[in-house]
Specification:
By secondary structure, this protein is of the alpha+beta class. The chain has two helices and six strands.
């Protein structure tokens, strides 16, 4: 395939660019956090990991559910769900207080002391009171 060369006028004025004004400041709030765990013990039993992770709850954040490969497996998961060593553990706020980074680091410290290897986190935020994260299967 051969393309025809395009010629441009070197004296042509560049096209104008219309900028949009910056959006109004929105109120951002942390509603919880997804903590991803690398865990391959006890035949990947979700009840074992779930009950042990619940011991890591703090006053501000508590385990709501665990999913694996997009399927909710704790609490009340199906026994026949195949699990890998990569677990998403959703912790949500326990009351109406504002969640801070200090609350999150307290939770992560508790998870580490509980013997879990967290490999990634993702904040669950709302903007102006509207959820900006996806619900998990079963939520």
């Amino acid at each position: 395939m051969k393309f025809t060369p395009k010629e441009y006028d070197p004296n042509a004025k560049p096209p104008s660019v219309k900028l949009k004004p910056a959006p109004a400041k929105r109120k951002k709030a942390i509603e919880g956090i997804d903590v991803f765990i690398d865990w391959d013990e006890d035949n990947r039993n979700p009840n074992t990991i779930g009950k042990n992770l619940e011991k890591c709850n703090t006053d501000a954040l508590a385990l709501k559910l665990i999913s694996n490969r997009g399927m909710k497996i704790y609490p009340d998961g199906m026994d026949e769900t195949f699990s890998t060593d990569h677990w998403r553990c959703r912790f949500v706020k326990t009351d109406d207080r504002e969640i801070t980074h200090a609350h999150i680091t307290e939770l992560l410290d508790s998870i580490a002391k509980g013997g879990f290897d967290f490999i990634k986190t993702e904040h669950l935020c709302s903007f102006d009171g509207k959820r900006s994260y996806s619900l998990s299967q079963g939520e």
